[in-house]
Amino acid sequence: MQRFVYSAKDEQTQKVVKSVVQAESERDAAKLLIAQGLSPLNIQEEADGNIITRLTQRISSKDKVTFTRSLATLIEAGLPLSQSLHTIVEQTQNPKMRQVVQDIIVSVEGGHSLGDSFAKHPQVFDRVYLALIRAGEISGTLDKALRRIADQLEKDAETMRKVRGAMYYPGIVLIVIVAVVVFMMVTIVPQVSKLYDGLGKDLPFLTAALVAASSFIVKFWWAVLLALGAGIYFLRQYLQTESGIRLADRLKLNMPLIKNLFRKLYMARFTRTGETLLSTGVPMLDMLNIAGEAVNNTFVAESIHNAEEQVKGGVALSKAIKDQDYIDLLIPQMISIGEQSGQIDAMMGKVAKVYEDELDEQIKAISTTIEPILMVVMAVFAGGIVMAILFPIYSLVSVTGGNL
């Protein structure tokens, strides 16, 4: 299937619509448009675009939140769905988001439901989003569902911003460490090695290894860069495979310093997603299935799906999830209270708030803990190089002093 950018005249509204359609050929694209009540004016295959265009025109969480809140406000004000979408598309600044909304308009006006129209863009709207939209359509509370989606998107974005913020400082310090080591290896060590060449004495093993490494980097820097680039490329490719994803997910759950942070993140994500889905009317089994994917960790997802299978067999959710790996005990305890009071969604919301607050504290603790560790690492690397450089000098002075 190819993507075609088109402009067409809507026979009902007499307005010109611009969007994207998927079809086998330009002829098939025209047939699809005519079937939707549009008169094609221009159809051409969509260009891939360069890297800069793809990066600058990506759809951010902020774009989705703005679109979702605007649609909720207009529907709540009593505007028809089609008119609401037309109003939003005129106000949308992001070209890529505008194309998506225009495609949704065409689909809705062609007789499709809003949920099915959104589902044509899985790269923009995930399963949680689609489930809430469909639940809102069925229950007649689409505006409330949209507001819950916007709240969920904002909370997720805020949580991820905090987690990434906690990783920025260690990343910057590691870059500084690498830069200092590289600077010393390509500038200071070569100069010192010239001094040692004139001594006519064997260098200690550590100093000889340092000089050899420095000489290799200076002479074959291009090979080092190629090897580094190839290593990063293949690592990224591996991390996109099933085994690579599972390895990364396992490290997040078990690596010292960061495991508590990620475990609280996954618990907050699971309970917040569950609260949002249940409060909108999504059935329990669907909630577990969707929330399992929403946590974005294969091992936690497996635990949730195991609980889902037990719930299918008639086991209460609190019992089904109690003995699952990577699920904190607080969650089944609070869900049990919710089952007794008939407010599981409210209890999951309270648990989510607890984990979100603990996550904030964990982020602060990690920043405080990692700082001295990184300082020690920097001191070891830089100090090791300095000692390797100065050790032969001290040895020479000691020998000379002894002969005197």
N-to-C terminal Cα separation, in Å?
86 Å
Roughly what is the average pLDDT, rounded to an integer?
Answer: 82
Shape field: globular
CATH topology of the domain at 195-404: Receptor-associated Protein
**Helix/strand order:** EEHEHHHHHHHHHHHHHHHH
CATH hierarchy, class of the domain at 195-404 = Mainly Alpha
Task: Tell me about the largest β-sheet.
Answer: 3 strands, antiparallel
Q: In order across it, which strands form the biggest sheet?
A: 2-1-3
Give the helix tally: 17
**CATH architecture heading of the domain at 195-404:** Up-down Bundle
Portion of residues in beta strands equals: 5-15%
Radius of gyration: 29 Å
Describe the protein:
The chain starts with a strand and ends with a helix. It is globular and about 90 Å long. The chain is 75% helix and 6% strand. It has helices spanning 26-35, 51-56, 61-76, 81-91, 95-109, 114-119, 127-139, 142-197, 205-219, 221-238, 242-254, 259-279, 284-294, 298-312, 317-322, 330-341, 344-403, and strands at residues 2-10, 16-23, 38-45. Strand 1 and strand 2 (16-23) form a beta hairpin. The protein contains 17 helices and 3 strands. With 404 residues, the protein is mainly α. The model is unreliable at 49-56 (pLDDT under 50). The chain has a 3-stranded antiparallel beta sheet.
